[in-house]
Fold Bifunctional purine biosynthesis protein PurH.
Amino acid sequence: MSLITPKTALISLSDKSNLDKLVKFLLKQKVKMISTGGTYKSIKKITNDVMEVSEFTGFEEMMDGRVKTLHPKIHAGILARRETDMEVLTDRGYELIDMVVVNLYPFKETVASGCSFEEAIEKIDIGGPTMIRSAAKNFKDVAVVSDPNDYEQLIDEWQNHGGISYEFRKELSQKVFQLMAEYNSAIANYLKDISSNAHQFNFNKSASLRYGENPHQTADLLTFSNLEHKNIANADILQGKELSYNNIVDADAAWECVRAFDKPACVIVKHANPCGVAEADSIFDAYDLAFRTDPTSAFGGIIAVNRILDKKTAEEINTRQFVEVVLATGFEDDALDELAKKKNVRVLCVDLEQDNPYPGVIKKVSGGILIQSDDTFIVPEADLQCVTKRQPSPEEINDLMFAWKVAKFVKSNAIVYVKNKQTIGIGAGQMSRVISAEIANLKAKEEGLEVKGAVMASDAFFPFRDGIDKAASSGIASIIQPGGSIRDEEVIAAADENNIAMLFTATRHFRH
């Protein structure tokens, strides 16, 4: 498609950034400028070659400026199709407007400032959206600029190519309709919030990722609007390389898990599964114990702590392992200096409290989507049912509750071995629960961690007694599991035969 070289520009701006540069360029191109209100006054300080909208239309603005650009001469000039509408335009004595430079009243910023309801309503722009929508619809012949950040590219295109290309006009049009979707949603959200104290959230594209889960896949990061907290998608990225798709998925899994603990805790995640979790009196000790669960898998993993990261722990991380991402609620200055020695490590600051912008989990399936609520249930300790002859000791109960929390974040079939609030073996994602138990046992043996006296959590019930026999042969003292199998009596008998205490939760935590 051909270039256009606009002859008449309509300019009406709330954000007047870089206006001086744009106006001086348009003057050089001999573009006729029409403007409104405060923008007109700003342009007059630069040049006298500007016409006020009311002079252009012959219609004085009214209602304190509410009605000034809503005039046929404006919209006919913008919407006119050059192939079919020129005759009617000429008959009425109207002229073409082939550039519209307009941005909108800052509604979201006004609302965020704590303004009154009446002030918010007054900041709902009417003329601006109407003009840019008209121009965006007619992008074949009209250039519409709704973002001051696009002035530079506009000027470069015009100078270097002799006009504004079809491709760039189409891109600018798309930005207008994206802007309008967000603008209208912000207003709808505000009014809904005022009337029902409920929130609506919408996506904004925040990044194009280098690729998806694999290099042949494309990926974007979409972030919800109106977030109150620093979540994974809008975390403060303090240093490091660009986050990859897998980094974001793993970081989310790590942060989701570490938030489940009240005391200082550390979670190390690899391929969306915890490979080491520990709770201790300090973040340093929690990291040390989590790392010792499975140093091999921790290599290249994601580390999350639910406190401020200190220098000593940062030094230990740098000394011990290669890490992709470190997440914390904050970082001591010395800790950031230490992490900066590994410049590629992504360092993210995230709030413990997170937004919940949509109700639950969304999964794509062929021909549709599945939506389910979040798995937020935490079984109260008082609701645990001991089904064996031996009761677990208080220490075992503490470890069982810890193991149960971790199991919820491990891919099914999940088996978690724990001792003294440290994972000592994790078996994840196996088709057989017994194999998951064997993997957990193998991991503990590889790292020289003592299984005897440890506890075991299973995310779902044991369909046969073989899982219990496997746990007994490894030295497991207590088990926590949902129960509910048709062979529960057989499973309980196996636990009694091996002097294992077993608690039923009556709740399972599948994670696929």
In short: The chain has three domains: 8-196, 206-349, 381-504. The longest strand covers residues 203-209.
